[in-house]
Amino acid sequence: MKEFGRMKRILFATSLLVGATLCGGTSTAMAQQPKHQTVTINAKSMSVKQFFAEVKKQTGLNFIYSTDLAAKLPHITVNATNRPLRQVLDEVMNKVNCRYEIEGNIVTITRRMAGERVRNVSGVVTDESGEPLIGVSVCIDDSKVCTITDSKGFYTLKVPANACTLKFSYLGMSNAELRLGSGRAPLSRNIQMVTDNQLSDVVVTGYQEISKPKMTGSVTTITSAKLDERYTTNIMNNLEGRVAGLSTYNGKMTIRGTSSLYAETTPLLVVDGVPVEGNIDDLNPYDIESVNILKDAAANLTVYEKKNVDYADNFYMTPEQQVDTEAKYWDYYFFHNDGEVADPIGTTAQSISMGTQAVTPIEYAYYQRAKGEISEEELQNQLASFKKNNYAKEYADAVYKQRVMQQYNLSLRGRSDKFTNNLTINYKYDNSGLINHFANQFNAQYKGSYNVAKWLTASMTINGIYSKSKEVGYDNNSYYSDIWKQPAYMPFYNADGSVKGQHYWYDGNDYMTFGSPFEDLSSNPVDEYYNNTQVTRRQYMRYHGDLLFKIIDGLTANAQFVYETNHNTVEWNATQDSHVMRTMRNAYYYQSADGTIKNYVPTTGGLLRTTNSDGRYWTARGQLNYAKTFGKHDIMAIAGLEFRETKLTGSKALMLGYDDQLQTSSTHTIDFGTLSTMNYSPLFLGASGGFPASQFVFDPYIKEGMGVVPETHHKYASGYFNLTYTYDEKYNVFGSFRKDYADVYGLNTKFRGTPLWSVGAGWLIHNEDFMKDIKWVNFLKLRASYGVTGNIYQGATSYMTATSGELNQYTNLPYGTIESPANPNLKWEQSRTTNIGIDFGLLDNRLRGSIDYYNKVAKDVFSYRTLDPTTGFTSMFVNMASMRNRGIELQITYDWLRGASRKNWSWTTNFTMSHNSNIVTDVENPSNSASQLIERPYVKGKPSSALWSYRFAGISDQEGEKGQSLFYIEDGGKSHSATGKSISILEYSGQSEPKVIMGMDNSVRWNGFSFSILMAYYGGHMMRALAHNETFSSTWSTAIASYFLNAWTPEHPTDIPGIGRYASTATGSETTYSNNAIHHADFLKIRNIVLGYDFPQEWFRGTGINRLSLRFQIDNPKYLWVANDVHVDPETLGLRNPSSYIFGLNISF
To answer: SS in 3 state form for 202-261?
Structure first.
């Protein structure tokens, strides 16, 4: 934590220094108030336009005036040498009978009317979220008497004393009007403008910006104002309920269903128009100006990806002028179930003597009673005492703590005529809710541009991220970190108040000792969180350079280069006293030739395992852009080349006998060759055949800590072209073609690249003459598109793959294993998408939205194909499967109330709905048994998320298998074991992915207060939950599930497997995948409730504060409704996620 403290101080000092530089880098006019400025102008017969230009040259002030007005004004003579600016302006304006107003660096010029009676009106213009809007045009009625808002959204204007209307207009916002009554007293009037979602949205795709009326594809845009309405730890979660067709169910993000059986489904991340390798979690939410979700081929062919181009997320980054401080707190709630285990005397005695099993206090008490060592009364007294224990609660009190998440953000902006500078610094901290755990991250980004010349603009972005996290380290027997791995009646504390060491599996028990030289293997759950830790450090840098050349009118050239580095260091440190090291030392004790006991590993010190990985990625792009309007013809075209390379390398290092304080180790003294061939311990647990040292020590602790991180190195290239043509602002046609190359499939050169294309058309119906008289239709567009997109599966390669480096345990010679055969005909997966949609804006755009129908057919999908075993392989990956997704999407927004000012009510509802039908249309399933089909559930005619289940046949009452679950097998028979039976015994139980997704977001504002509530519905799918799994008839027991309170006995026959003496002698996966564990998974939830307050801006006039707001948010309140009758949360398959409470403070300067 000390290094983070130093870093915070350094970053704070840096931010102040850069902030001062940014502010000091603006023009002189911004740094010096007009009343202190002087000008020198000496001219005869000068036009007012020349006068304004000269003043701007000397002061940096910008003049706003009507060109008609300037043309009518007489020429003037000016004699001013080093005179105050205001004196000169007063003199000149009097000569031409005009008046002026200065706000910041803007001077507004208007005609002075003879004898006019005027009054002053001023106020602040904001967007829906309360952010000030800069540059809003404010005009009196339809006249040319106008002004614009300054950097704080403030305006002032002299208006006639009689009644009039102020009209407000701003790009991307619906026009607003403010009616003023007659009077002469000064007025203060604030106004809130709302986003025009139809007419003015600009979609930022991978390579260009295009207005929504010209788009023929399906795109959803979420602005920063909408993102700012609620806080989420993940940007993608902030999109839920706002994008029709988007699913975040169970943490898996999909749009319009799944189109691949095995390929990765993470979205393509495009930042400022260029694909990047960073994580979505790396994005600072305060840097995001907008998110564009591109769904179909016509939208998506402006980007390509080696992951998944069925959809892409484009983030346009623009730092905000604000400082945000947010802290997030939530509580964990724990539940437990009490249970008991019955007697058997033989296995308990064996476990005590051999030390191969843990023995619970109840088992030992029954053992003593059976041996006659205690009376029945003493047994019952012990049982009564055990019932008072609550292991889970005491564990939670000792290990868990209140989870706190904090986030701080500082943004600075500076601008002059040639420069723009933006700096954003973000810090996040999470204590993870566990002792000795934390995660924090610094994220700093600079973004600037410089107008080098009229024909050249240079831009640069530098983004740096440093993160550090700490968590419990790996342990092959990590039961101590699981709250449910001990029976509920197990004591957590010793009689003296110290934490009791717990035994698990081969760790022995409380009633025996291993004897010298072996060490006790009990685990203190609290100490292990400090003795076994893993620290992860990450350093990520992204450099983005962009040159924009303005060649001729309408033609520009763009050159971009992005370079990314990602360095990760993972240090796993198990101290000398950790359970890991005690197990390792016990495993490798041996008796030397002279009879002395020695150890193959150091008997002092711990383990330090370090894994370093370095990723280096670059993208280079050259592009020509053409945009021109010829009368009724509008053309937009782009063409370019893009090259991309990704490379990941890494190494591992292991030190044993490591002392962190002395910084020493004894790794050089170890004979790793001997350890690698030792399957069982020479001495430890010798009575039971020896401890499996290779499986539980050498492989997970030693072998995995040495060697290299497998290198992945790929190159990609693309050539692309697209054209958008619009005629008379009514008819759009679109065409796109690109060819992408990747080195993943290279044996057959014709499959290294794949051509991708799309076409689309749009009809702006509202611009037709026959629609002019239909005033309630503001926007109406019909669009259609068809195209082909591609996808690469990184898990497949056309080359033969093999592993090497293993040593034969008998010959001690290296050997290799061929994992997959060569397949020169592997190629890209492809999706062919047809999309038909309608965009509309009705009733003064009060009702707006879109309706889409799509049909997405995936071809050449990777799947397994059965091979002749004589080839040496039973199956291989080939392009032979196909899938189809078909559905509809509806997205509607309605403004119930529109508040023109802060004191008016506003109420907006956004509703999204989608229905998707997913079918595997062709696939070969090589499954020969029921268990294999459950593992690979892909069957022709069924969804890709199909659930297959064993058919439950009740509980057996036959001797030898009483209390055991039975399942139907072939010919109507019943059996306890069914995993190896044919696939015909299984039944189809529905699909696990939702068919129907709905979201509804309601936002209400009044007088600075805001209230919003987001609801989500997922339906049409099934889940596996509360499976009645059997318990093995051994002495080992964890926390007992509550359903065993109703367990089968001869006197109480039920559908719950037996326990104790009726427990199963052999357990499989049948009960987990039984059809009696299938339940409906439909649910309706409130995702979050947000209450906020924006303080009146008038309170901070002159303080430099633009906005001050507070926010309180509740996430994950109790679900409103679930379809299942077992009260299970379908998203967790158990208890619901705990509610979280967020407090936020937002200050904008």
So the answer is: EEECCCCEEEHHHCCCCEEEEEHHHHCCCCCCCHHHHHCCCCCCEECHHHCCEECCCCCC
User: What is the reported pLDDT for 329?
Assistant: 26
Whether 1026 contacts 1046, CB under 8 Å: no
Question: CATH code at 210?
Answer: 2.170.130.10
Whether 148 and 208 share a structural domain = no
CATH code of the domain covering residue 86 = 3.55.50.30
Give the three-class secondary structure for 256: coil
Number of folded domains in the chain? 3
Residue 1082 included in any domain: no
Instruction: Give the max Cα distance, the chain.
Output: 124
Q: Which residues of 732-751 are buried (b: 16+ CB within 10 A; e: fewer)?
A: bebbbbbbbbbebbeeeeeb
And the tokens for 405? Answer: 């998440």
| N residues, the chain | 1149
Domain containing 1 equals 1-111
Tell whether pTM > 0.85. Answer: no
Spatial distance between the Cα atoms of 193 and 167, rounded to a whole number of angstroms: 11
**Count of Cβ atoms closer than 10 Å to residue 535 Cβ:** 16
312 plus 229 within the same structural domain: yes
**Is 234 a domain residue?**
yes
* Residues 844, 851: Cα–Cα separation, whole Å: 19
- State which H helix or E strand residue 536 sits in: strand 532-552
CA distances to 38, 408, 412, 1137 from 7, in Å: 45, 14, 19, 34
**Mean pLDDT in residue range 93-109:** 81
Residues 569 and 650: their CA atoms lie apart, in Å, by 10
Residue type, 1071: T
| 72-86, 258-272, 897-911, 1130-1144: segment of lowest average pLDDT | 258-272
Amino acid at 672: F
Taking residue 197's Cβ as centre, other Cβ atoms within 10 Å add up to 22
Closest CA to 341 of 1099, 1031, 1066, 1102: 1031
Neighbours of 493 (CB within 10 A): 12
pLDDT digits (tens, 9 = 90+) for 536-569: 999 999 999 999 999 999 999 999 999 999 999 9
